[in-house]
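Probable prefoldin subunit 6: structure tokens wanted.
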Amino acid sequence: MVEEIQKKLQNEADTLRQIQKEYNKALSQRQQLDGQLNENIMVKKELDVLKEENDVFKLIGPVLVKQDLYEAKQNVDKRMNYIKSELKRVDDMMSTLDKKLDTQRDVIDKLQQAFQQAQIKASINQSKS
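Answer:
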């Protein structure tokens, strides 16, 4: 009985570690997206300051290519919208993983209690023998 509960406890702990690993990966992804969004917000502010006659260049590989100001603004807006949708997706995933973590911790708590009770019963039975 004690060994069976211990084995279940180990499996549930492994599952918890896996969920935590997924959560940390999502958190890292979110931080990266947040940084990209902030960078694009700064670019948009800079583009908004420019006048139509100003030159805008886009870095493509090792080459700077002249780009239309309107097109540059459109590209930044599209990129920001994409990043925002990715942030929402990652936030939703993190929320789901949060719930899974809570559930998994509850399962482990219950198994730990059952394990302790089984150990007490086993020691009581040994002392009676």
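The CA atoms of residues 52 and 69 lie 7 Å apart. The mean pLDDT is 94.

Cheers.
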